[in-house]
């Protein structure tokens, strides 16, 4: 049965009565490579442990870049990058491990080695994705993306971006329910930067509460994104202050999960924002 404020992630029950942080752990060749063919598992595990110590409630592992302009990797290469990492993190860490992938075969094998959540930028639209998740107990994040990463930022247009994103998410939630995925396993995400101009991103954030469907938790990924670069003129590594400002605004507008690279700083921002907005227990705990 669905229980408001709890996300069922495999064997984990994640408390979302206060907003939480999902740490980003990319295992693309430029991230944890030791120069050889395989990811440096010890370095990845150390980073995962550090994220948990810093307060991450979920660790999101991705082996394929979805940045604007990026080209995909093939399924064998993606599995080679992520599966050993998921297996070691799931056995060593005490939080749900999420697999960031759009490929049903990668989802299935990641779940088999311990992933408790699927983070899918195409919201289970690839053939077989719905069934893989339905046959498991994992949670799934359904994200909106218009177009494909290689071309999505080439003049994206909407009549009403908030209404179109909400209608898309409602349809994907209905598709999930249609194959038997319970509501307490679903999370929705407007997909900031995925086929959206700066103006679209700002409207979506400002009207985030209007995206809610069926009281499902909202996840947002704003950390280091191009919209911060557009507003501040700073490169990705100089966008922490902008990322924290957006994370704070997202919590104020009802976001439950903040996907972030800078875990320690984001956890503090989210706790403070959650306390002010009345959706966190942290104020009471430390008074
Ligand atoms: C993988 N990835 C990159 N940005 C993201 C975002 O905004 N949301 C989700 N769910 N995943 C993302």
Question: Care to describe what's here?
Answer:
The chain is α/β, with parallel strands linked by helices. The protein has a single domain (6-277), classed as Dihydropteroate synthase-like (TIM Barrel), CATH 3.20.20. The protein is built from 11 helices and 10 strands. An 8-stranded parallel sheet has the order 8-7-6-5-4-3-10-9. The protein has a two-stranded antiparallel ribbon with strand order 1-2. Helix 2 crosses helix 3, helix 3 runs parallel beside helix 4 and helix 9 packs parallel to helix 10. Bound molecules: 9-methylguanine. 9-methylguanine (9MG) binds next to strand 7 and strand 9.
Task: Describe, in short, the structure shown.
The protein has 287 residues and is of the alpha/beta class. It has one domain (6-277): Dihydropteroate synthase-like (TIM Barrel, Alpha-Beta Barrel), CATH 3.20.20.20.
């Amino acid at each position: 049965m669905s229980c408001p404020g709890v996300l069922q992630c495999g064997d984990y029950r994640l408390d979302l009565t206060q907003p939480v942080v999902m740490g980003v752990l990319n295992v693309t060749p430029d991230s944890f490579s030791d120069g050889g063919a395989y990811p440096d598992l010890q370095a990845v595990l150390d980073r995962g442990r550090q994220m948990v110590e810093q307060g991450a409630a979920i660790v999101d592992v991705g082996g394929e870049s979805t940045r604007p302009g990026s080209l995909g990797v093939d399924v064998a290469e993606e599995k080679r990058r992520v599966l050993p990492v998921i297996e070691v993190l799931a056995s060593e860490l005490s939080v749900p491990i999420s697999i960031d992938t759009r490929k049903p075969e990668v989802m299935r094998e990641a779940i088999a080695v311990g992933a408790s959540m699927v983070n899918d930028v195409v919201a289970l639209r690839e053939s077989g994705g719905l069934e893989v998740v339905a046959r498991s107990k994992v949670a799934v994040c359904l994200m909106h993306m218009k177009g494909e990463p290689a071309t999505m930022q080439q003049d994206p247009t909407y009549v009403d971006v908030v209404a179109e994103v909400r209608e898309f998410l409602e349809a994907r939630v209905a598709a999930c329910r249609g194959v038997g995925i319970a509501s307490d396993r679903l999370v929705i995400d407007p997909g900031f930067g995925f086929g959206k101009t700066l103006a679209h991103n700002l409207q979506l954030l400002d009207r985030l509460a209007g995206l809610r469907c069926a009281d499902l938790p909202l996840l947002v990924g704003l950390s280091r994104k191009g919209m911060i670069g557009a507003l501040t003129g700073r490169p990705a590594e100089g966008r922490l202050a902008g990322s924290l400002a957006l994370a704070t605004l997202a919590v104020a507008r009802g976001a439950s999960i903040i996907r972030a690279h800078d875990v320690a700083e984001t956890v503090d921002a989210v706790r403070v924002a959650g306390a002010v907005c009345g959706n966190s227990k942290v104020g009471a705990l430390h008074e």
